[in-house]
Amino acid sequence: MLTENVAVHWHGIRQYGTPWHDGTDGVTQCAIMPGETLDYKFVVDRAGTYLYHAHYGMQISAGLYGFIIVKLPDGVSEPFAYDHDHTILLKDWYHGSTYEEAVGLSSIPFKWVGEPQSLLINGRGRFNCSAADTASGVCNATNSDCSPYSLTVVPGKTYRLRIASLTSLSALSFEIEGHNMTVVEADGSFVEPFVTKNLYINSGETYSVIVKADQDTKRNYWITTNVVGRKPSTPTGLGIFNYYPNYHYKYPTTVPTTGPFWNDTASKLAQSRAIKAHHDYVTAPPPTSDRVIVLLNTQNLVNGIYRWSLNNISLSLPLTPFLVSLKHNFTDTFDQNPPPDTYDVENYDIYSVAENKNAASSNPIYRIDFNTTVDIILQNANTMTNATSETHPWHLHGHDFWILGYGDGKFNITKDPKSYNLANPILRNTVPLYPYGWTALRFRADNPGVWLFHCHIESHFYMGMGVVFEAGIDKVGTLPKSIMGCGKTKHMINS
Amino acid sequence: MLTENVAVHWHGIRQYGTPWHDGTDGVTQCAIMPGETLDYKFVVDRAGTYLYHAHYGMQISAGLYGFIIVKLPDGVSEPFAYDHDHTILLKDWYHGSTYEEAVGLSSIPFKWVGEPQSLLINGRGRFNCSAADTASGVCNATNSDCSPYSLTVVPGKTYRLRIASLTSLSALSFEIEGHNMTVVEADGSFVEPFVTKNLYINSGETYSVIVKADQDTKRNYWITTNVVGRKPSTPTGLGIFNYYPNYHYKYPTTVPTTGPFWNDTASKLAQSRAIKAHHDYVTAPPPTSDRVIVLLNTQNLVNGIYRWSLNNISLSLPLTPFLVSLKHNFTDTFDQNPPPDTYDVENYDIYSVAENKNAASSNPIYRIDFNTTVDIILQNANTMTNATSETHPWHLHGHDFWILGYGDGKFNITKDPKSYNLANPILRNTVPLYPYGWTALRFRADNPGVWLFHCHIESHFYMGMGVVFEAGIDKVGTLPKSIMGCGKTKHMINS
Known about the structure:
Two copies of one chain form a homodimer. By secondary structure, chain A is mainly beta. Chain A has two domains: about 80-265, Cupredoxins -  blue copper proteins (Immunoglobulin-like); about 290-490, Sandwich (Immunoglobulin-like), CATH 2.60.40.420. Chain A is built from five helices and 27 strands. Chain A has helices spanning about 100-105, 130-135, 265-275, 320-325, 460, and strands spanning about 10, 50-55, 65-70, 85-95, 120, 150-155, 160-165, 170-175, 180-185, 190-195, 200, 205-210, 220-230, 235-245, 290-300, 305-310, 315, 360, 365-370, 375-380, 390-395, 400-410, 425-430, 430-435, 435-445, 450-455, 465-470. A six-stranded mixed β-sheet of chain A has the order 5-4-7-12-9-10, with no helix packed on it. A six-stranded mixed β-sheet of chain A has the order 16-15-20-25-22-23. Chain A has a five-stranded mixed β-sheet with strand order 6-14-13-8-11. In chain A, a hairpin with an 8-residue loop joins β13 (about 220-230) and β14 (about 235-245). The longest helix of chain A has 10 residues, at about 265-275.
């Protein structure tokens, strides 16, 4: 890329000992300029299904993303069996320039990115497909806008499908017509298996599901993905579940599913709650936490621009990466006032249109005592639109967290912790916050560094929906020069 | 710009004592990253008509450009009189993304930018204008795609029009229907006045012309600009020369001129030759030069990509700006082999399709002894297309040069210097090289620093059409840290 900067995040890799290679522009590094080289080096310390993607501007939308599959050591096996292993990466696709999207999100008048034009399965989807493209019942592979992904399966075999979403906006439902899926892995952790017809999946999440090719081998089946969580205006994403030896581009004659009702939050919540640690692989969380941080998620107007805020603070990334500032004791490069650990719980009405006239763009950080246990309560609320609350997939860098519980309405710090699942909570790096609800999670601040925690919807993060945690900065080694070059690091130049 | 780097060049400002603020990415500075600040500080030491524009990627095409008008000191006046002073900036406009253009120019298969979709006069032009937009004879100002620039003049008054071109590709002809223009200034130097019906103008050139509002005051006249030098496929750029008090958006009923024949090189050459220093403002060039550098302009395939080369070297900007490398004695940041001062004059056929299989992308520099006089002979040749040679406007940073002469065919170093105009050559910063011809210029290397000399067609420069001169680097003061941050300057970080 001769004129574009970049930074690449290794999503789900915890970067123990290498916090400078987490790949987050403004947090752990300066962006890599055109022609420059940055060698990311890190340890992959456990098997699982992870991702990589750009962490600069809107470059996920622009297409910089993929899977990282970390294999099990020889002689070790998963608690499930399969014959073949395939990856399926889901994406929403905007046909416009991500540069224009970014400009719109930071302009007055504000210009929202809107709903995506297509849904992609492994990079393939459909757009402006004419009747001629489908009338024959065979995909017109000569029109690349209308040629779907086709997964060929052998009758009777069992498939592990690693399914991930890196959508820029859309929450999705994924299904394979006529086939149930058994969920067995989430974000690298083994899941107590459960069967589902459709998998709800948010941006930043990975799953493994087991699917058996045990249906009518004379035909193909639809693979479909649909927008949920927002009122959809994007056509169903289509793929073909192809039974060998049928022609792999032969369309099923059935009608592709349009998925569950987009606003069926109860169904999504039920699936989220069903995701628990596999009984042979439970890692129990610490029974109590040392600190509770409640983050109220609101949408606000800040200086005339729509922004997302946490406890009235909308994150604006500093010019000097936090990691560099903290390691070098710069105090003039970011907001030194600690951000609030909670909001006005008693008086805030989460069902009213957000006003929060005190919301401001800034960049303070939560400084966490090293090796302590922290609970995060994500509290959802109404946006600036009447009767609207959105779904936000929150992703934590550098750590997994235990998901202790989900609830409707306002979190009650006296009562709700009593319902926490401390027995077999799943350890993940991404978790949804549902409309008007709360999500509680716990993590151990055992990874020295500076770590972003943010909504994985790219435009929401661009609009400030994130916070930053620091722990054990004194234990971080010498930073590589390759992450520098911007902001106050220029003061460190020996001229 | 939240995700775009930038550098801004002050075109025509010589930057005596501030070579680090010439604004050329890769030559005098690292690009300015989003959110960063670089305060350009420089002395404007003489009056005249200059420009500013981006000098990064394809950002002129993206629209970052404008005039710099340096006024005369009080009590000093030009050798011409006028009542009013107006600026007219000409531009070719591509409707696509400049990011996509840049990708196309560096891809295999190579994708040329093609001809522009519109010509703009002071940012206004026309595109997809329907009959309804013009049928009434009045500009439909509600359609911003079809509302031209209108210059209102008062009958009987005299106008100085400062006309500049910052086209990305097109050489232009400019005229005002029914009005002659007297050319009086070029690139900040006073011109011995001459009258013309049309002004040929290349990217990077500025002119002042005097126009008298002495025609039929009952009507408006067309201002037109047309592509010359390449076979045009772009509609005539239209503006209105509006006689007050006629309605300023009333179209003339005459047919706008389509300009001179696009390939009438003789006419363009004649006008170039007519541009001489004003008799009261002649600065004589040194009578001889200390060094002659002959630069053969060829188009070549380098590693499968179309590039432009000078003496078989296609400029690829280094990651570390030349100025920083030279000041800090870095020898591993650019090609240390001096580039050739000439080509194989005897055997090279400038009328054959360029092959030059030895052409390579690289970044050597011409090191010039300080305060010596250098002659540059720009030698044109055939491109990689049969019977094709293009026009290239060459622009020198940090200096003006005397234009000693133009010629057809291959420059003859024995005979041709005898025809040099040493009596009253114009001092300029930009000069055209015509198809199959040569252009000779002379400059004094009296400005300590590192200076780019390049074709001002943005895509040609992007494709390597430039060389770099160094002189007096030992006289350059301490470089500001604000120009650093990229390439090997990271090694200078004190971590």
